[in-house]
Structure formats: structure tokens, C-alpha cells
Amino acid sequence: MQTHFEKELAALKEKLLTMGSLAESAVTRAVKALVDRDDDLARQVQAADDELDALEVEVDDLAIQLLSKAPLASDLRLITVAMKISHDLERVGDEATKISRRAIDLGREPQLKPYVDIPRMTTMALEMLKGALDAFVRRDSAAARAVIPRDTEVDALNKQLHRELASFMVENPANISRCLSLMVISKSLERIADHATNVAEEVVFLFEGRDIRHQLKGKALA
Amino acid sequence: MPEVTLQKISVAGGTESAPPSGPALIEVKRLSLHYGATRALKEISITLPERLVTAFIGPSGCGKSTFLRCFNRMNDLIDNVRIEGVVKIGGHDIYGDDVDVIELRKRVGMVFQKSNPFPKSIYENIAYGLRLHGLKAKSELDGVIETSLRGAALWDEVKDRLHASALGLSGGQQQRLCIARAIAIKPEIILMDEPASALDPLATARIEDLILDLKRDYTIVIVTHNMQQAARISDHTAFFYLGELIEFDTTKKIFTNPTNKRTEDYVTGRFG
Fold first, then answer.
1. Which residue among A127, B167, B170, B268 is the one 20 to 30 A from B8 at the CA level?
2. Are B7 and B249 in contact (CB under 8 A)?
3. Structural domain that includes position A65
4. Number of domains within chain B
5. What is the Cα–Cα distance from B101 to A168, expressed in whole angstroms?
6. Closest chain A residue by Cα to residue B260
């Protein structure tokens, strides 16, 4: 039988997963709005962000309430991690809003080029996010660890796209505003992959009790 | 059971030291304690460094208080107790034939759950032990009594009524008086058996703060049922269950990421 405390912890997890699914869907729909040049869909994405924002506040509120009961060990880790994951998911929602705003701007002009890399980056970033959240649900820290190196692939695609867009701008100044919008979108997708990485790192901390953030950076500096 | 040792833990951004360990002060090797036919402690091995606070936690009846009492041979006072294994303090076996138990208890002071001042004045509560240990001159007594009361963070509250009865003090003040009495004879180690469990939160906070001050000069071992108290004041924590030492590590490790499943279940309140 679950204790009251365990029920509250379960509610906390449930809220995080709801946030995860809302964030994923927001990104998918924002990019679909871009590709399909669908302004209505883009506006729906923006409107839906309020729900994620509200959930972030709810998660923090519940987490603080749970912390006041002085949890320890894995319970303590779950609650602190929940606060961080909810923040990352809320930021994913913000990036989706950013993408949808730019999609509306881009819809006012002819399409600059066929979108190939952006959907690819989206798929990769969302696979990472989904992988990190699945690892959370399945209590699988190895799966969470597997998500982290994929961030470099998204980073590489972002850089590649920036180079390509820069060359479009050099070619014709009339391309600049559209290129800048696409650069913002590409950067947003790259940030979503970063948030997915953060979530994966939090999941590793949750299940292993080991903080693996900034390790590569530390090694590079040393 | 294998000897439990402190393990190194690493955190991001570098390797955190192993638990802040000083020179070993208390070393226990394969200690077992029997009450008649019952084995209450099972082959416990542990090393406690000096000038740190070690907390003993575990469910009621797990043996933590019994183990604490091995450090000043309080269990000798109970019939039918048989002890095997070695307890060394400062390198000397305290169960050796040549050990003067009175002298040992001078080195290893103790504070109990229920404050137990003598039904005498505040002054006499401290002076009594000092006189027993040969201190007679009033000026010297006055000096040590003041230092001890200051050390126990009680001086300012009682300096104007040193000759009033100790029983007129509040519970928290009585407990601090007992701590003053313990430190007056300059022990190396202070054992505390749930010293704050009968106190309100404010008095508890004062005792906890005092414990953190005292560890500059003393090695403190505390038995507590209050996990948050252990988290607040101890450097190391040992978890006992059914007479066994299950896990011993830095307090941070025990309360954020214990290695043993039983420790995890106990500190998260899932059993015990």
C-alpha cells in the first residue's frame, strides 16, 4: 500500500510526464507549422505554452511542499531533480513558442529553401528528449547516459545549417531576414537538445546519485 | 561480516575527499556483545576519527545505544553481558586488564536522553565531579565552572544564579548543564544518547549548535532517532540494524545516496 508521501511523489512524477508530453508535442507542432506554413497551428502552439508554464509552477509548489517533509536519499534526489527537469521542460516549451513565432514570420515570405536539416534536427532533439524521459520512467540510467553524446550530432547540424544560411545571406541580402529566422529556429532546436541532455543528466543523478554534469568540459580544461 | 570502511566518493568537478577523516581515535574490531544467550551486537568493526561528530542511527532495538555504551564500558554495569572483540581508544584496548574504568569514563564522558542533574545547585553540579578528580581550590573551581558553562553555552543564562537549584532550569538548560558537567573534567570523547529527543525545537537547535561548537575540541558520538538531526550535525553516519553495522560513510553519502538497500529503506522511512 502506498503511503500518503508515496502518493504525492507519484503525483510529482505524473506532472513531469505530462509536461514532457506537452513539450514534445509543442516542438513537433511548431516545426510542422513551419514546414506546412500553417499559421493557425503556430498560434495554437503559442497558446498551449501557458499550460506548461502553469505545470512548472505546480511542480515547484509540490516539490517545496514535499521538501518541507524532510525527505532523504532517493526521495530527496527525486524531488530536487523534478524541480530541474520541470524547468528544462518549460524551456523546451519556450523554444517551441520561439519556433512558432518565426514560422509565422517566415510564412509571410516565399520559402527560401526546402527544409531538410530542420526536420532532421527536430527528430534528433525529440528522440533525445523522449529517450531521457523514457529512462526516467523505466529507471534506466544507462539509457539516460546513452542520450548525452547525441547532443554533439545536433550541435554539428546546427553549425552546418548556420554555415549554409550564412552563404545564402552573402549571395543575396534579400535573404537575410529569412536566414536569421531560420538561424533562430536552428538554435532553438539545438537548445532543445541541450535541455534533453540536462534531463538525461538529472536522470543519471536520480538513479546513480552521481552528478555527471560538466564532466567533458572539466576534462577539456584540465 | 566484512570490515566496513569509509569509501571515497567522487563528485563532478573533481574528487571530493574521502570523509574528512583525522587520526583514528576509536577503533573497534569485530565487537560482539551478548546479553545472556542473545547476541545484541554482531562483529562490528568501525574506526572513528577524532574531533568529528559521528551519528549512530537505526530502528529501536538495533543495538546503537548498546554499542555507544561499549565506548565507556557502561555495559559492565549490566549482569549477563559478555563482550568479544577489541575496542581501542587512542590505541589502548579499553577492555584490557590494566584499565581503570573510572579513569576511562573521565576520558569518555556521556550525556543521556533525559537530563539528569544532581539535586544540587548549578555550581555544585559541576564542582562535584571536579572535586572527585582532585580539584579543591575555590578559585580554580570557579574558573573551570565558568569555562565549562561557557563551553556549554549556558553561562549567560545562569551566571547570576549559580547557587540556585539546577532543578529550576528548563529541560534544555538542564541538558546543557549536563554537557557542561561532562566537559568540565576535560574528556576526549563525549557520548550522547539522544540528547535532544526530550527537548522542544528551540532547545534542540541550541544543543545542536553546541555540538557543532564542541567538535573543535572533542570527538562526539551521538545516537539519534532524528535523521534530520544527524544530517545537520554529524560528519559521519553509521546505520545499524538487528545488531549489525550495515553502512558507515559520510553523512552526505548516507542521506543522499546510501549504498545499501536497507539504509535507503530506513532513511526514506520505508521500514524501521
1. B268
2. yes
3. 4-208
4. 1
5. 90
6. A73
Position B101 in a domain: yes
Q: What is the count of structural domains for chain A?
A: 1
pTM of this structure:
0.85
Q: How far apart are CA A185 and CA A191, in angstroms?
A: 10
Q: Give me the CATH number covering residue A37.
A: 1.20.58.220
Closest residue in A to B14 (Cα–Cα): A218
How far apart are alpha carbons A119 and A166 in whole angstroms? 19
The cell for B42 is: 554482531
CATH number of domain containing B61: 3.40.50.300
Contacts B266 to A, Cβ<8 Å: none
Q: Which of residues 212-241 of B touch A (CB under 8 A)?
A: 227-228, 231
Phi, psi torsion values for A154, nearest 5 degrees: -65, -40
CA angle A25, A27, A29 (to 5 degrees): 65
Sequence-distant (6+) residues with CB within 8 A of A17 are A133, A136, A137
CB count within 10 Å of CB B16 equals 15
Q: Does residue B129 belong to any structural domain of this protein?
A: yes
B8 within a domain of the structure (yes/no): no
Domain membership of residue B108 as a residue range:
24-267
Residue B10 domain flag: no
- Residue A183 sits at the vertex; the CA angle it makes with A177 and A185, to the nearest 5 degrees, is 110
Residue numbers in A near B231 (CB within 8 A): 72
In a domain, A213, yes or no: no
In a domain, A12, yes or no: yes
Per-residue pLDDT of chain B (272 residues; tens, 9 = 90+): 444 444 443 333 332 334 546 788 999 999 999 999 999 999 999 999 999 999 999 999 999 999 999 999 999 889 899 999 999 999 999 999 999 999 999 999 999 999 999 999 999 999 999 999 899 999 999 999 999 999 999 999 999 999 999 999 999 999 999 999 999 999 999 999 999 998 899 999 999 999 999 999 999 999 999 999 999 999 999 999 999 999 999 999 999 999 999 999 999 998 85
Collect all residues with Cβ–Cβ distance below 8 Å to B262 and sequence separation of at least 6. Answer: B239, B241, B246, B247, B271
Angle (CA) B64 B70 B75, round 5°: 100
- CB contact at 8 A, B144 and B125: no
Beta bridge partners of B238: B56, B248
- B11, B231, B264: residue with CB nearest A211: B11
Residues of chain A in contact with residue B262, where contact means CB-CB under 8 angstroms, are none
Q: Is residue A113 part of a domain?
A: yes
Interface of A with B in 58-97 (CB under 8 A): 70-77
Residue B83 to residues B31, B79, B101, Cα–Cα distance (Å): 7, 12, 15
Q: Considering only residues 1 to 30 of chain A, which have any Cβ-Cβ distance to chain B shorter than 8 Å?
A: 3, 5
What is the chain B residue with the closest CA to A211?
Answer: B12
